[in-house]
Amino acid sequence: MPNRASIYAERSRIVILIFIGVFFVFWIRLFYLQILDSTYKTDAENNAFRKKTQYAGRGLIYDRNGELLVYNEAVYDLMIIPIQAANTDWAHLAELIEIDEAGAVQRYKKARAYSRYAPSVFEKQLSKETYGRLQEHLYMFPGFYVHSRTLRRYPHAVAAHVLGDVGEISEDELLRLEPEGYKSGDYIGKSGLEKYYENDLKGQKGVKMIMVDVLNREKGSYKDGAFDSAAIAGENLYTSLHLGLQAYAERLMKGRRGSVVAIEPKTGEILALVSSPGYDPNLLVGRKRSQNYQVLLNDTVKPLFDRALMAFYPPGSIFKIPQALIALQEGVIKPYTGFVCDRSLLGCHNHPSATSVPEGLKMSCNPYFYQVFKRVLMQGRSDNRFVDSRLGLDVWCEYMGRFGFGQQLDIDLPNVKTGFIPNSAFYDRIYGHNQWAFSTIYSLSIGQGEVGLIPLQMANLAATVANRGYYITPHIVKTIGEARRVPGRDTARHETGIDADFFEVVIRGMYGAVHEEGGTARRARIPHIAVCGKTGTSENPHGKDHSVFIAFAPMDDPQIAISVFIENHGFGGTWAAPLGSLLIEKYLTDTVTRPELERMLDDALKPVVAKPKPAERPQTREPLMAPLPQMMPQLGTAPLGMPSTGTPAPNVPQPQPSSPTPTTEP
Amino acid sequence: MNEQRKIWRNIDIPLVLAYLVLVIMGWCNIYSAVFDPEIGPTFTFDTRYGRQLIYIGFALVIAFFVLYTNLKIWTQFAYLYYAVSILLLMAVLVVGTEISGAKAWIKIGPMSIQPAEFAKFATCLAFAKYASRPDLNMRLVRNQIVASLWFLLSIGLILLEPDAGSALVFTAFIFVLYREGMSGNVLITGVVAIILFILALLLNQYVLMGLVALACGLLVVINKKSFKNIAMAIAIFLTCCVFIRGVDYAFNHLSDHQRSRINVLLGIDSDLKGAGYNVNQSKIAIGSGGFFGKGFLDGTQTKFNFVPEQSTDFIFCTIGEEWGWLGSTVLLGLFLFVLIRIILLAEKQKNDFGRIYGYGVACIFFIHIFVNIGMTIGLLPVIGIPLPFFSYGGSSLWTFTLLLFVFIKMDIQRHASV
Question: Nearest residue of A to residue B373 by CA position?
Answer without folding.
Answer: A26
